Amino acid sequence: MSKSAAKKIQAIRGMNDLLPSESPRWQFFEAKVRQLMHRYGFDEIRTPIVEQTALFARSIGEVTDIVEKEMYTFDDRNGDSLTLRPEGTASCVRSAMEHGLLHNQTQRLWYQGPMFRHERPQKGRYRQFHQVGVETYGFDGPDIDAEVILLSARLWQELGLLEHVTLELNSLGSAEARAAYRDKLVAYFDQHHDVLDDDSKRRLTSNPLRILDSKNPAMAEMLNGAPQLMDHLDDESRTHFEQLKAMLDAAGINYVVNPRLVRGLDYYCRTVFEWTTTALGSQGTVCAGGRYDGLVEQLGGKPTPAVGFAMGIERLILLLETLELIPEEALGGCDVYLLPMDDNATIVALTLAEKLRSELPTLRLQLHCGGGSFKSRMKKADKSNAPIAVLLGEDELAEQAVTLKFLRDDREQLRVSQAELSATLQNLVPH
Q1: What is the mean pLDDT of residues 24-52?
Q2: Where does the chain bind L-histidine (predicted)?
Q3: Any idea where the domains of the chain sit in the sequence?
Q4: Is residue 40 part of an annotated ligand binding site?
Q5: Residue 61: which pLDDT band, with cuts at 50, 70 and 90?
Q6: Contact in structure between 401 and 418 (CB atoms under 8 Å)
Q7: For 22-174+233-323, which CATH superfamily applies?
């Protein structure tokens, strides 16, 4: 075999394996999310990871960084331009339109899954990353804006994160108000053209609102003096925003109004929000969303009010790990290691394991397989992290009993009959 043929194939940069030692953290987080969505009456939707490129170009905006620089786009064998989804909202809208979910009805939907963007990988940000998102359709009042924010706040509370995150709010107003504001903003930036960096000069003609989001310290003073969108809102958007704030105040949710919060996607209007944290070093966003009332119509449907958010799973799990908020019992391992002490006990152990799994469906039981000396079998029992080993040897087989050995506590071994084993384990293993 040639050297080139024998070269090891590795994962693509920025697209990572999730190893068995890491997956319990994800399962813990995903279980919290799934339970919460169920309690709030949201229904799960699953969309393909590949869509027509036009879907994202039309929804996200052709002059955004995502479409211009970051999308994984390719021509398939039929010559169609396809793209790995860089975010979930456009796919959700396309699916809801295609399957008639928006006609004279309201929807509360949620999803989770991988997204793809070609950007420089860094801790908590990867080229294949995973998001949880919610999307709601058919509600035009501020009450649904408040509910999706309250849903996210409850998730932080249940994860122990609420005191480590800050809610930032803004309103982008209607499309007409934003267009008038854009003209004033461009005129202001033209007066300070020499202060703009190259990226901002490029955005001046394509997406000037994104300049407000610049983190360039050399532009900070100039940006602080820029006209504020809040001062140019239409009356309806201003009333909507005041009502939203009143609802959050009544619910006891703290927030900061950030007039420079604009979000990077073209489809947003009215309410926009971000949950940010400084617990990972520099300020980072862990959840972001807002209203996108014009997107359904933009993609060929009837005008439909919509609001949603997305959160990055990798960054949230990194935050939970940094703050040591993932409980020990969620980190994997099994409750019981069932160990035939020699090959003569294998068949009995196998049937006993299945009996226990039927009688105790929440028990995490691992059966020893692969033979080996008694010493090597005990090593595997210890490595399983189970607190209890159930031993089956010659004496136990003769008595139709088992021996319980406590691997993590200094307790005497316990001999019980096989008939009593299920009830004994139910008392010893809390679930």
Answers
A1: 96
A2: 87-89, 117, 131, 135, 263, 267-268
A3: 22-174+233-323, 334-428
A4: no
A5: low
A6: yes
A7: Bira Bifunctional Protein; Domain 2 (3.30.930.10)
b/e code 107-136 from CB counts within 10 Å (16+ = b)? bbbbbbbebbbbeeeeebbbbbbbbbbbbb
Q: Quote the tokens at residue 13.
A: 């940069």
- Please check if 268 is assigned to a binding site: yes
pTM: 0.85
User: 88: annotated binding-site residue?
Assistant: yes
The verdict on whether residue 135 carries a ligand-binding annotation is yes
pLDDT tens-digit series, residues 90-148: 999 999 999 999 988 999 999 999 999 987 877 767 899 999 999 999 999 999 999 99
Residue 190's SS3 state is helix
Q: Which tokens in the block code for residue 94? A: 């396309």
Quick one: pLDDT band at residue 355, thresholds 50, 70, 90? Answer: very high
Residue 62 pLDDT > 70: no
Q: Is 89 annotated as a binding residue?
A: yes
Kindly state the helix (H) or strand (E) to which residue 89 belongs, with its residue range: helix 89-98
Q: How many residues are given for the chain?
A: 431
For residue 175, give every residue at least 6 positions away whose Cβ sits within 8 Å of its Cβ, in sequence order, or none. 269, 294
- Per the listing, tokens 């014009």 go with 294
**Measured between alpha carbons, how far is 144 from 162 in angstroms, rounded to an integer?**
21
Distance between CA atoms of residues 66 and 105, nearest Å: 32
Task: Find the helix or strand (DSSP H, E) in which 181 lies.
Answer: helix 175-191
Measured CA to CA, the distance from residue 186 to residue 205 in angstroms comes to 8
What is the reported pLDDT for 3? Answer: 55
| 8 A C-beta contact, residue 36 and residue 83 | no
Is 263 annotated in a binding site? The answer is yes
The answer to whether 292 and 273 have CB atoms below 8 angstroms apart is no
**Looking at 189-254, which runs of residues are DSSP E strands?**
none
Q: pLDDT class for 177, splitting at 50, 70, 90?
A: confident
- Could you give the CA distance from residue 271 to residue 255 in angstroms, rounded to a whole number? 13
Question: What is the rounded CA–CA span in Å between residue 102 and residue 106?
Answer: 7
Q: Which residues pair with 50 in a beta bridge?
A: 84
Domain covering 334-428 in this structure, CATH number: 3.40.50.800
Backbone angles phi, psi at 196, to 5 degrees: -65, 140
